[in-house]
Amino acid sequence: MQLDLLWQYMQVDMDAERFENEMRNSPNRQQLIKQRDFLRDQQTNMARIEDDVTGMIDRLEAVRDEASRLQSLLDAAREALENDPPKTAEEVEERLASVQKLMDSLSRYEQELKKMQKDAVTRDRQQKEVRIRAARTKAEFDALKKEYDVEFKRDSEKLASLRATAEKEARKVDPNLLLRYRQIKQHVSPPMAKLVGNQCGGCFMTLPSASLKKIVGEDAVVECDNCGRILYAPEGE
Question: What is d(CA 223, CA 236) in angstroms, rounded to the nearest whole number?
Fold first, then answer.
């Protein structure tokens, strides 16, 4: 008798669990999660680009300052060549080498400035693309969220009704048997299986004759040695 009641409870319990899984895996919910994750990725991308831009601005200022300093040194060296020409070949060579070194350094900084300006254009384009994608996805997310909220409210009410029915059936079952059912359910679901011939209807393992006698002859709780389910043999089957 108790196994009959437990089996009836399991039917509504499994119905509620299946419906809850359907809610969790609904297309709208999965799409919302996908869009939410995409928006988070775009926020991360935007933060990374902004960090890159901040670093570029700091470096740009430093490069400009250094380029300005080198240009001043170069102008001063050229002016010195005009106002105080070198008197010996050695001095000429030394001054020219100094000027060339300044020009080479200035050229490197100018090249870096050009590269940074090009990178700045790229980062600006990336920022615009990220903003456009994020705005489009956010609009889709908001529209879908409204639809999903209606769906969730309706399905939550249905789930609550299924859970209430399951709880009503649970009160008919012996508490100790119900506790064992829930313990088994943590490892295998559904936690009960019908006897099919001489086999467990859950894992199809052939049962020993001693277990079969207990199941058929008594209202005893017998668990499958293989899968652990509570075995059930309804009358007339």
Answer: 21
Cα dihedral 147, 150, 156, 161 sign: negative
Q: Which pLDDT score is estimated for 35?
A: 95
The long-range contacts involving 168-175, CB below 8 angstroms and separated by at least 24 positions, are 169/5, 169/8, 169/9, 169/12, 169/13, 170/9, 170/13, 172/5, 172/8, 172/9, 173/2, 173/5, 173/6, 173/9, 174/2
Average pLDDT over residues 182-196: 94
CA distance 180 to 184: 6
Euclidean distance between the first and the last CA atom of the chain, given in angstroms as a whole number: 15
Backbone conformation region of residue 45, classed left if phi is above 0, alpha if psi is from -120 to 50, else beta: alpha
- Amino acid in position 139: A
Q: Which residue has the higher pLDDT, 26 or 48?
A: 26
DSSP reduced 3-state for 228: coil
> Which residue type, as a one-letter code, is found at position 134?
A
The Cβ of residue 74 has, within 10 Å, a number of other Cβ atoms equal to: 17
Give the separation between CA 48 and CA 71, rounded to whole angstroms.
Answer: 34
Q: Which two tokens stand for residue 6?
A: 């437990």
Alpha carbon distance 206, 22 (integer Å): 33
Q: At residue 12, what is the residue type?
A: V
Token pair recorded at residue 207: 């049962």
The DSSP 8-state label assigned to residue 194 in this structure reads E
Determine which helix (DSSP H) or strand (DSSP E) holds 42, and give its type and residue range.
Answer: helix 27-83
pTM beyond 0.85: the answer is no
CA distance 15 to 165: 10
Q: What is the 3-state secondary structure (H, E, C) of 205-219?
A: CECCHHHHHHHHHCC
- What residue has token string 């990178």? 119
- Of the listed ranges 100-104, 138-142, 159-163, 175-179, the one predicted with least confidence: 100-104
